[in-house]
Design goal:
Length: 198
């Protein structure tokens, strides 16, 4: 009997831990504040489309002409970096919309959004100073269109991270409990060594 329980306890513990790492099944309640995958996939799709719309606007920025007017050459580097970030954001948002509960990829995408927003502010200043107020306003207006989606994604990401942390704590408690149960089980009896025949 002891041998059987010694085999079953680790299996039951492993099954319990595995069940806690699964996302909620269809029909199961989601954690409060965590948007459904479908809803956040729509937001991610819009973020990707917005990033794609930024590219033609960035193509209108003539950072080389700015340098001729006395601007720092770092504007050209920031412009190129902004284009690269916008392209990566467009592709990354589309990929993440297929599986939005991937925390590492969600964080990477959010940091990309933040980085691009920061560079756009610098480019807007350059546009005002070295190109035209109208071009600066056009870029600022387009950049601002993503504000609601960015905030919604930020809230989703915060809730998702908190939920993952809670799951890890539950897994740790369950692992500790299972370890305690296994340690309290008596060691299986070893059969006596077979003696030599005479």
């Amino acid at each position: 009997m002891h041998r059987a329980s010694g085999v079953w306890i680790p299996l039951v513990c492993a099954a319990a831990l595995g069940a806690q790492t699964q996302p909620p099944a269809a029909g199961q309640a989601r954690p409060a504040g965590l948007e459904t995958e479908w809803d956040i996939a729509v937001v991610l799709g819009e973020i990707g489309v917005h990033a794609g719309r930024l590219l033609p606007e960035l193509d209108r920025v003539d950072a080389k002409a700015w340098v001729d007017k006395g601007a720092s050459e770092t504007y050209a580097a920031q412009l190129e970096s902004s284009k690269q970030q916008a392209r990566a954001l467009e592709l990354g948002a589309k990929a993440l919309s297929q599986d939005p509960e991937r925390l590492a990829q969600s964080l990477e995408l959010f940091f990309r959004i933040e980085g691009l927003d920061s560079m756009l502010v610098t480019l807007e200043d350059g546009l005002r100073k070295y190109q035209s107020e109208a071009d600066a306003e056009s870029l600022a207006s387009l950049a601002a269109e993503n504000g609601a989606n960015r905030e919604r994604f930020r809230q989703y990401l915060t809730t998702l991270a908190a939920e993952r942390e809670k799951q890890l704590e539950m897994m740790d408690r369950e692992a500790q409990r299972c370890r305690g149960v296994m340690m309290s089980q008596p060691a299986p009896a070893t059969p006596p060594a077979a003696g030599r025949k005479k």
